[in-house]
Amino acid sequence: xxFKQFRLQVSLRVFLIVLSAFIFSFFLQKELIANAVxxxxxxxxxxxxxxxxxxxxxxxxxxxxxSINYDDLTQTFTIxxxxxxxxxxxxxxxxxxxxxxxxxxxxxSDLQFYKSIAQQLDTAIxxxxxxxxxxxxxxxxxxxxxxxxxxxxxxxxxxxxxxxxIFNNKDEEGIYHCTIPGMYASERVVVQKMLxxxxxxxxxxxxxxxxxxxxxKVEIQAWEALISVLTHEIMNAIAPVASLSDTVKGxxxxxxxxxxxxxxxxxxxxxxxxxMETISHRVSSLSTLAENFRVLAHLRESQFEHFNxxxxxxxxxxxxxxxxxxxxFELQLQQESILVTAxxxxxxxxxxxxxxxxxxxxxxxxxxxxxVIIRSTQDENKNKPIxxxxxxxxxxxxxxQNKIFIPFYTTKKDHVGIGLSLSRQIMxxxxxxxxxxxxxxxxSEFTLRF
Length: 450
What we know:
Layout: H1 2-29, H2 33-69, H3 85-120, E1 124-128, E2 134-137, H4 139-144, H5 161-167, E3 174-181, E4 186-198, E5 201-210, H6 211-257, H7 266-297, E6 305-308, H8 309-323, E7 328-333, E8 339-342, H9 344-365, E9 371-378, E10 385-391, H10 398-403, H11 419-429, E11 433-438, E12 444-449
Parallel strand pairs: 7-9
Antiparallel strand pairs: 1-2, 1-5, 3-4, 4-5, 6-8, 9-10, 10-12, 11-12
C-alpha cells in the first residue's frame, strides 16, 4: 500500500512536469515570453519538490540501513499521522526497528540464560577460537585449574601434556581420556570435543568431566545400598539365634542344677531340640547368604563367541513350556537370524533368571491367562540386538523398581535376591545392559540390550 501510494504521487508529479513542459513549448512557439518564463519557473518548482520528496525518503532509508548496519536500534522515525507515503514508510521503518530491537533483546536474554547454565554446570567447559585464544570458560574450569593462567591454549601445556595434545588434536570430534594434576593427586578426566561455527568462525569446545569423582559417588551409593540390605538380612538371621541361644542356655543350666533331683522328660528335651533346629536353620541361611555373596564377587570371566540369539530364545521357550505348564509362552522373532557376540551360557542364565522372576510374579498376583512374551528384535535407532521379556502380571511398585537390581534385595519370602543383580552384572560383562520398564497393573518388561 505504501509503495502504491508513493508510485502514484511520483507518477502524478512526473505527469505534471511533462504537461508543464508541453505548455512551456507551446508558449515559446507563440512567443508568449512572460507565460513561458512563468511555466518554466513552475517546472523547476515541481522538479525541486520531487527531488525534495526523493531526498527525504532516501535520507530515511539510509538512516534505517545505517541503524541495521551499525546495530544502532535506538533510532526513531517521525510519524505525523498523515496519509502521505513518507509517513507510511516511516511507520514501516519504525516497526521493523522495533522488531529488530525485540529480537536482539530476546537473543541477549537467551544468551545470558545459557551462559548462566554453563557457569553452574559441574563439568568444566572451555572454548578456543582458531588462533587458540580462550573465548569462554565456566567457573568449574577455573576451579579445576586454580592458580593457572588459562587465556590461551598454550597455557595448558604446563598443566598437562596429555590435555594439551588433546586440545591440539586435528580430529573434528571425539571423546578422550587423560590425567591432569589435582589438588592432592592426579585425576582421571574425560574430555569431549565439539565443533561450533559462530559468525563463520570455527570454535573448538571441550567439556572436561572428572571420572573418579563420579565413579566414587556411584560406588558409595552402591555400597551403602548393599550394606543396608546385608545388615537387614544378617540381623534377621542373628536376632533369633541370640534369643534362642539364651533360652537353651537357661534350660541347660536349670537341668544342670537339678541333675541329681529329677530326670529330664521328653517334653523338656523336645523344648531344647526345637530351638536348636531353628538355630541350625538360621546358620544355614547365613551360609547361603555368604555363598551367594561369593558367587557375586567371583563371577567367572565371559567366554565370547558368535551365536544366533533367536535359536537361544527358541530353546529357552521350549524348556519353559514344560517347566512352567500354567504359563503361556510366546516367542516373537523379528527376523530369522540375529547374531550376538557374547557368552551364550551366561546370556541363557540371564533369560532364565528374568523368566523365573516373571513366573513367580504371575503366580503371586494370580493373573488370569498368565503369559510371558520373549521377543527377539533389533533397536530401530542403533540397529543393535535386543531381547524383550514381557509379562502380563501386576507390575512392580516404584520403591521396588529402584532397588530390584540391588544384591540381596527381595520382596519374596525364602528368596535371597541375587538373581536380577547377578543378571545385570553378567550383562555388563558381556558389553550389554539389563533394563526394566514397568507400571502397576500393567505388567513388566525386562530388556537385554547388546
